[in-house]
Amino acid sequence: MSKERLVVIGGDAAGMSAAAKAKRDNPELDILVFERSPHTSYSACGMPYYIGGLVPEVEKLIARTPDDFRKKYGIEAKVRHEVTEIDPKDRLVRVRDRDARREWQEPYDQLLIATGAVPFCPRLPGSSTGGIFGLSTLQSGIRVQRYLEERQPRKAIVVGGGYIGLEMAEALLRRGLEVALVQRSEQVMGTLDPDMGALVSEALRQTGVTLHLEESLTAFEASGDRVTAVVTDKQTLPADIVILGMGARPNAELAERAGIPLGERGSIRVNSRMQTPVDGVWAAGDCAETIHLVSRKPFWVSLGTVANKMGVVAGTNLGGGSAVFPGVVGTAVSKICKYEVARTGLQEEEIRRLGLEFASATIKSRTRAGYYPKAGRITVKILMEKGSGRLLGGQIVGIEGAAKRIDILATALHAGMTAAQLIDLDLSYAPPYSPVWDPVQTAARQVVKMI
After folding, report:
1. Where in the sequence numbering do the catalytic residues fall?
2. 159 contacts: CB under 8 Å, gap ≥ 6
3. What CATH number belongs to 5-118+249-318?
4. Which terminus of the chain has a lower count of CB atoms within 10 Å, N or C?
5. Which numeric CATH code is attached to 121-246?
6. DSSP reduced 3-state for 335
7. Per-residue model confidence as pLDDT tens digits over 97-141
8. Domain 341-449 CATH class label
9. Do domains 5-118+249-318 and 121-246 have the same CATH topology?
10. Tens of pLDDT along 159-204?
11. pTM
């Protein structure tokens, strides 16, 4: 009797977490992974720090190679192999070997789609010119690094003020480039409320980044095979290298062509066990939707933490166990030089769309006791539902020691706590780490006073 075969499409966070977990739980599974890039199980989040020189070797971003998976787990992971078609009816996938240039059909009993997300790269005049990069796979980060070393650019334009945009702005500053950032909205960091985004915009200016806010990208100019300028609806900005940080979308085209239903923002629809509505087909990671635990609405987010957790849940179920992924509260952090940014839960615009009445409070404090050396500034904003007092979200901007405080709020959101209950938490205190009243609790006291 032949072994049951699990085919995994995508060899990074969700795909390899699922494959490893399934194999540990059921060693009899025959697991075959197809990854179209040259690498498996790597830290895409680490790319800006490799490009900026904080991580000296790209190999340090690779957790396990295909050889590691083969020797340790007995999992066959084939890189530079792209799945081009899924046939759910006959349980087949069509695979293309990108080096040998041959194609064949591979059968499966269970299929996990873990194709991740792809950066948004607009089709504009000049967009195919060399020197314009979106970041998604480790290989894309290697290409940026190689371009910086070989071409020695001096002027960099980052388009988009989200997490990748901020982190790449810092990386390029560290490389000694002149950095400008183009953002179509009035402030950077659209996942923050505008008042908190304004703090991040000012922090960027203080680090030396030139901001061009409320400008939209319209085209690129080039000379030969090199980009020379970014054209917006207001001006033309000289550029030797361009980083596109305009967000990402679920990489779900393969699933859509196979008739697998899509959900929020075009992500693959799954239940809490990571099953799609199609028998024998599962999905996990940046290509799959989830639930937002505060709004209770379908939600999509592209984060390595979420992808790994989804992968473990999928792998547990595929290995014969039982697990569910409960959802997320939208927690994320980033930094630009000495400034830290964090958010969790809902922002004002999302709360208004839900029709909820809310109150918010913003306080300024210090990361340590005011008399302790290097006590830095921190701004905390808390949002609370009127009536119930339920905590709805929080945002933090500050220097070292600020951002990880968001985990207090994320934990409170998972527990369904009120802002008043947050005040009563027995948080740690010592002058090197916090004022007597932690800034998060000070913000909670302020918002409770307003009601």
Report:
1. 45
2. 165, 181, 182, 217, 230, 242, 243, 244, 245, 246
3. 3.50.50.60
4. N
5. 3.50.50.60
6. strand
7. 999 999 999 999 999 999 999 998 889 999 999 999 999 899 999
8. alpha beta
9. yes
10. 999 999 999 999 999 999 999 999 999 999 999 999 999 999 999 9
11. 0.95
